[in-house]
Design a protein that fits this description.
By secondary structure, the chain is mainly alpha-helical. It starts with a helix and ends with a helix.
Amino acid sequence: MTSVKEIESAIRQLPDSEKKSLALKINDLYWDAWDEQLAGDITSGRLDDLIAETEKEINEGNVKPLDEVIRDS
């Protein structure tokens, strides 16, 4: 298997356009893995307590609308 240092060295030798393309692909892979993890957590029920707590806070009026939070920052 290729080491991280070897990969970094190879990346440094790429033209800027290929570095950008590679960075975008790596970013997509990262977010695809994140989406899969989140979907798995939702399906398995790992987030049920967090979702219930959040819904309770919303129903009790303890949450500000996002536009209000942004405006007040």
